[in-house]
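Input sequence (125 aa), recorded before submission:
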Amino acid sequence: QVQLVESGGGSVQPGGSLTLSCAVSGRSVGYYAVGWFRQAPGKEREGIACISSTDGRPYYEDFMKGRFTISSDNAKNSLYLQMNNLKVEDQAVYYCAANGRCTGYVAPASDWDYWGQGTQVNVSS
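Predicted structure, token format:
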């Protein structure tokens, strides 16, 4: 069974930074495609970025505009999301996921099989 556990969420001021972590167990972090999603109240869960299991490359949704960076660490079997210049509209629950389509794009949340419990990111003045 693949297990995903997010950590690193919290509260920051607009313009601040956070790095989220996702500990993966049951499989190597590189075995499946892995990705980050977020969901704000009243909105659908949206993809942020993913790392392909076939070419190892990261893929980002266009709205990120360079502020977020996805990465993985095979030695720690972990996935990371570095978030810079956070905006109020970034406030959401952030989830890591595994085993979805990540072939040049982040497939919708419904395509992904394994999910973490989510970690809250608050951005406010």
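Checked by second reader. The chain has a mean pLDDT of 96.
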